[in-house]
Amino acid sequence: MRRVTLEDLSRFPTLKDFFRKGPRGAGRPPRAIEPPTVPATHRWAHAFQNVSNGGGHSFLNLWDPPIGANQIFSLSQHWYVGGSGANLQTLECGWQVYPAFYGDTKAHLFTYWTADDYNATGCYNLTCSAFVQIGSSFAPGMALNAVSVVGGAQYIMELTYWHTGGRWWLYYNGTAGSNAIGYYPDSLYKGGALAGNASEIDYGGETVGTTSFPPMGSGHFAKEGWQKAAYQRTIGYYKPAGGAMVNAGLTPSQSWPVCYTAQVTMYASPWFETLWFGGPGGNC
To answer: Which residue in 40, 49, 74, 116 has its CB near the most CB atoms, within 10 A?
Structure first.
């Protein structure tokens, strides 16, 4: 288990900044039909589907993109979303390179949640009383030391959220009971949308920067494919009533194609629905 230290806190101006997803807090991609109120410091390349669900799954290709001066973080993740406006709620998981938060340049497993559109609620990993860890082998915040190489070895991790019994369970590298890391209780969402089921699934990359933005994924564009572009594969969701995972039907979104792109491809087993995404970043 990685515990918060005074050194961790000292890298942020206030405690509120430490708990936030990123500068000014926004951490969920905007939709084309929404007014442009999301802070300009965040960038995304992702794919989503509006569907009632009780969680979902993917294999995430692992990378450790460099974070330069005036750049904050780069990640690949799942979002499960319910509600809207000030009542928007999410639970999230993935890998992230965030030197100011973790104190190193490695990729880390992370979880995040918010019950009020990233305003007064939400935190990473085990930094507040939200995520309940049950296992000792794996923990939110742990470093992921095996990462992919462009043109070489490719590494993945498997993440699953599953909603059952009033809890959003997170599983790592499998869905057996022994693979459960822990859960977010429904009570966090105070009777809101995610106290029941989510209404949207979303997968992809996010970066945060100031005057420039870091690479996303491998730093290569989606069209470059295997051993070059980052991906998430075997993407699917669970129906609220339960049962086997259903293949997703995602819509890609790439609002900054000069910096980052996204494309969705359906393959035969075992890849099925796959998102390729990423890019070099820069002045977006």
So the answer is: 74
Number of other CB atoms surrounding residue 226 within 10 Å: 10
What is the separation of C-alpha 268 from the centre of its chain, rounded to a whole number of angstroms?
25
CA distance 112 to 81: 12
What does pTM read for this prediction? 0.88
Tens digits of residue pLDDT in 260-281: 999 999 999 999 999 999 999 9
Q: Which stretches of the chain are DSSP H helices?
A: 6-10, 15-19, 99-102
Q: Is residue 95 within 8 Å of 62, Cβ to Cβ?
A: yes
Both tokens of 5, joined, read 């230290």
Side chain identity, residue 161: Y
The upper half-sphere exposure of residue 138, i.e. CA atoms within 13 Å in the direction of its Cβ, equals 19
Domains and CATH numbers, the chain: 6-28+41-278 (2.60.120)
Contact by Cβ (8 Å): 204, 44 = yes
Instruction: Give me the active site residues, please.
Output: 92, 206
Question: Look-up: residue for tokens 């993407």?
Answer: 235
Cα–Cα distance, 48 to 30 (Å, whole number)? 11
The answer to whether 43 and 284 have CB atoms below 8 angstroms apart is yes
The DSSP code for 4 is: P
Residues 6+ apart with CB under 8 A from 77: 60, 92, 93, 94, 95, 96, 110, 203, 204, 205, 206
**pLDDT tens, 39-96?**
448 999 999 999 999 999 999 999 999 999 999 999 999 999 999 999 999 999 999 9
